[in-house]
Amino acid sequence: MKQPKIIGIGEIVWDMLPQGKQLGGAPVNFAFFAKELGGQAYAISAIGRDALGDETLECASKTGVDISLIQRNNLPTSRVLVTLDEKGIPQYEIVEGVAWDAIECGAEELSLVSDADAICWGSLAQRSEASRKSILAMVDATPEECIKVFDINIRQHFYSREVVEESLERANILKLNEDELPLVAELLGVQGSEAEVIGAIVARFGLKYVVLTCGAAYSEVYDASGLVSHIATPKVEVADTVGAGDSFTASFVTLLLRGFSATEAHAKAVEVSAFVCTQHGAIAPLPKN
User: Fold this and answer.
1) CA 282/CA 164 separation, integer angstroms
2) What backbone phi and psi angles, to 5 degrees, belong to 146?
3) pLDDT reported for residue 15
4) CA atoms lying within 13 Å on the CB side of residue 79
5) 3-state class (DSSP) for residue 148
6) What is the pLDDT of residues 169-178, one digit of tens each?
7) Mean of all residue pLDDT scores within the chain
8) Contact call for residues 191 and 155 (beta carbons, < 8 A)
9) What are the C-alpha distances in Å from 131 to residues 136, 182, 245?
C-alpha cells in the first residue's frame, strides 16, 4: 500500500517557551506526526528572509517532513510568546504581520495538492486576506475524495463567522476542543447540548466526522449517526500540551487513510497525544513499538 500523501497548511512559528524556543505551528506539527505514522508528509507555510527563517529551515529539515514548499518573503519569521499555567496548559501571544500572513498559492502548490489524500488547515493562518485566499484555493484544488480537515485552532481574536463557515463548507472533518465548541456554536447560531450542537453542525455542512477533544477529561468522535467513540484521556505526567492537538489530528487522519476504523484511529490518536503531553514542545519522535 502506498504512503498516503498528507499536507498541512498554515502557520510556522517559533514557540518561545519558558525553557527556550522550539519550532512549532500547526502544519509542521501535523505533518511530523503524519510522517511518524506512515504518511508522506508536507508542510506549506511562509517564513522570512531572516536569521530565524534560516534556523527554521535547518530545524524543519531534520523532521522528515517535506518542506520544499515553505515559502520565503520579506516579512519576519513568526514568533509566539508562550506561557504555561500550573497544569502545563499554554497561553499564546501571537505576533502579527509575519511571513505566514502572506502565504501564496502558485503552480507548485496547486500541483502538490492536486493528488493529496488529506489536507489540514485552521483558522489562525486565515487572519490575513492574502493567506486566507491562498489556503482556500489550495483546499479547492484537492481531489473530491481527499480528506479535508478543518482543525479550527482558535487563537486570541483571530477568527470570524465568515472564516469558520467558508472552511466548514469545504471540510469533511472538523476537529475542535471543548473551549472552541461553544464559540463555534455561537458563531453559527446553534443551541443545545454538546451532542445536539455537533449533530447540527454535521448535518448543516455534511461532515463525515466531528472530533471533539476535552483536555484531561475525554475525547469523542461523531458522525451523522451520532456518537461513534468516547475515550477517557489517559492520566500522564504533563510536561506541556503544546502540539498535542496537532498530533491527535494527524494520528486520526493518517490511520483512517491506512484503513483503520474511526474507533481504532481515535484510540491511536489518544495514545499519541498523551505521549506528546509528556514531552516538552510539539515535535517529539514517537516510541517505536
Assistant:
1) 25
2) -65, 140
3) 78
4) 10
5) strand
6) 999 999 999 9
7) 91
8) no
9) 9, 26, 22
- Strands across the sheet with 90-94, in order? 20-24, 13-17, 78-84, 90-94
Listed residue (17, 61, 22) closest to 43, CA to CA:
61
| Contacting residues for 233 by C-beta, under 8 A, at least 6 apart | 214, 215, 216, 217, 218, 219, 270, 274
Model's pTM, two decimal places? 0.91
The cell for 68 is: 520544499
Name the residue type at position 29: N
Per-residue pLDDT tens digits for 211-252: 999 988 999 999 999 999 999 998 888 766 677 889 999 999
Greatest distance between any 2 Cα atoms in the chain? 51
Instruction: Find residue 44's DSSP bridge partners.
Output: 9
pLDDT tens digits for range 63-88: 999 999 999 999 999 988 777 777 66
**Would you tell me the crossing angle of helices 262-277 and 244-257 to the nearest 10 degrees?**
150
Cell of 236: 500522564
Q: Which triple of cell numbers denotes residue 51?
A: 536569521
